[in-house]
């Protein structure tokens, strides 16, 4: 029986170099993890989005390290191929020591292979501190949901040239600090392409246009069952893959195929 080759950082870099799009989805339980793994999802994120789509809260800020560890443990054994990434929750990386402690828990107790944190140049020291200690890091730029109480609303970031240039500089600084991957959320498609072309690490987009190396969506959004969808506030970049699917596994496989072929995101999903 052939052994399934697991995705790792080197494989993500190979995919970028080969021009193969990286298909990413959130996941929070074993049943969906099995479906995503079979469907060919490359990169599975236990995101603090669980605070909204699983816990029913209006923001992600109440999610704890315990919550993320719990959901990582729930899915890790169901993933034979996909790469498991975990969010560092709000304020869990406010200092280098807290970031290292939280990362240790997510990786040792939860089984995560990489951690993701939000922020720009102000997080470069944290990224470097984790990276040199063997913690793979995905740096999250653009819309940062953990800052919702400062931002006031979930909205597109980097629309003007000054903000776009600052984000591009932050991306470079985070990569230089040791980030193994970048995630861009809710930025104009031109900026997503600009940052991707300048980067040497994989760049994943969620509402960042088609010019990035891979796409991320929240699982409940593509299945048309998230709280945002049910109240008619679905983000522009979301596509309902259940609309033409006979079952959930078909919908997830259709998402993966759409990402791989470049059919998703289409123009209507971009800013």
UniProtKB/TrEMBL annotation:
<feature type="binding site">
    <location>
        <position position="87"/>
    </location>
    <ligand>
        <name>Mg(2+)</name>
    </ligand>
</feature>
<feature type="binding site">
    <location>
        <begin position="48"/>
        <end position="49"/>
    </location>
    <ligand>
        <name>3-methyl-2-oxobutanoate</name>
    </ligand>
</feature>
<feature type="binding site">
    <location>
        <position position="87"/>
    </location>
    <ligand>
        <name>3-methyl-2-oxobutanoate</name>
    </ligand>
</feature>
<comment type="subunit">
    <text>Homodecamer; pentamer of dimers.</text>
</comment>
<feature type="binding site">
    <location>
        <position position="116"/>
    </location>
    <ligand>
        <name>3-methyl-2-oxobutanoate</name>
    </ligand>
</feature>
<keyword id="KW-0566">Pantothenate biosynthesis</keyword>
<dbReference type="InterPro" id="IPR040442">
    <property type="entry name" value="Pyrv_kinase-like_dom_sf"/>
</dbReference>
<feature type="binding site">
    <location>
        <position position="118"/>
    </location>
    <ligand>
        <name>Mg(2+)</name>
    </ligand>
</feature>
<keyword id="KW-0963">Cytoplasm</keyword>
<dbReference type="GO" id="GO:0003864">
    <property type="term" value="F:3-methyl-2-oxobutanoate hydroxymethyltransferase activity"/>
</dbReference>
<comment type="function">
    <text>Catalyzes the reversible reaction in which hydroxymethyl group from 5,10-methylenetetrahydrofolate is transferred onto alpha-ketoisovalerate to form ketopantoate.</text>
</comment>
<dbReference type="InterPro" id="IPR015813">
    <property type="entry name" value="Pyrv/PenolPyrv_kinase-like_dom"/>
</dbReference>
<keyword id="KW-0460">Magnesium</keyword>
<dbReference type="Pfam" id="PF02548">
    <property type="entry name" value="Pantoate_transf"/>
</dbReference>
<dbReference type="InterPro" id="IPR003700">
    <property type="entry name" value="Pantoate_hydroxy_MeTrfase"/>
</dbReference>
<comment type="similarity">
    <text>Belongs to the PanB family.</text>
</comment>
<comment type="pathway">
    <text>Cofactor biosynthesis; (R)-pantothenate biosynthesis; (R)-pantoate from 3-methyl-2-oxobutanoate: step 1/2.</text>
</comment>
<keyword id="KW-0479">Metal-binding</keyword>
<protein>
    <recommendedName>
        <fullName>3-methyl-2-oxobutanoate hydroxymethyltransferase</fullName>
        <ecNumber>2.1.2.11</ecNumber>
    </recommendedName>
</protein>
<feature type="binding site">
    <location>
        <position position="48"/>
    </location>
    <ligand>
        <name>Mg(2+)</name>
    </ligand>
</feature>
<feature type="active site" description="Proton acceptor">
    <location>
        <position position="185"/>
    </location>
</feature>
<keyword id="KW-0808">Transferase</keyword>
């Amino acid at each position: 029986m052939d052994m399934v080759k697991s995705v790792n950082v080197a494989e993500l870099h190979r995919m970028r170099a080969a021009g193969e799009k990286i298909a990413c989805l959130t996941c929070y339980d074993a049943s969906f993890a099995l479906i995503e793994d079979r469907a060919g999802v490359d990169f599975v994120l236990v995101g603090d989005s669980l605070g909204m789509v699983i816990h029913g809260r209006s923001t992600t800020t109440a999610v704890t390290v315990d919550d993320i560890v719990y959901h990582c443990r729930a899915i890790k054994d169901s993933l034979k191929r996909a790469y498991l990434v975990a969010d560092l929750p709000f304020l869990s990386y406010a200092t280098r020591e807290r970031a290292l402690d939280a990362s240790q828990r997510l990786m040792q107790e939860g089984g995560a292979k990489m951690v993701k944190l939000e922020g720009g140049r102000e997080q470069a020291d944290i990224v470097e501190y984790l990276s040199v200690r063997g913690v793979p890091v995905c740096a999250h730029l653009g819309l940062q949901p953990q800052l919702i109480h400062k931002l006031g609303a979930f909205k597109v970031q980097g629309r003007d040239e000054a903000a776009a240039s600052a984000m591009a500089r932050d991306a470079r600084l985070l990569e230089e600090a040791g980030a193994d991957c970048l995630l861009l959320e809710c930025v104009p498609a031109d900026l997503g392409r600009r940052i991707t072309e300048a980067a040497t690490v994989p760049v994943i987009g969620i509402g960042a246009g088609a010019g990035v190396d891979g796409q991320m969506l929240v699982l409940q959004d593509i299945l048309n069952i998230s709280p945002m969808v049910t109240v008619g506030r679905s983000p522009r970049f979301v596509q309902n893959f259940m609309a033409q699917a006979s079952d959930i596994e078909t919908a997830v496989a259709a998402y993966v195929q759409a990402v791989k072929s470049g059919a998703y995101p289409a123009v209507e999903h971009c800013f």
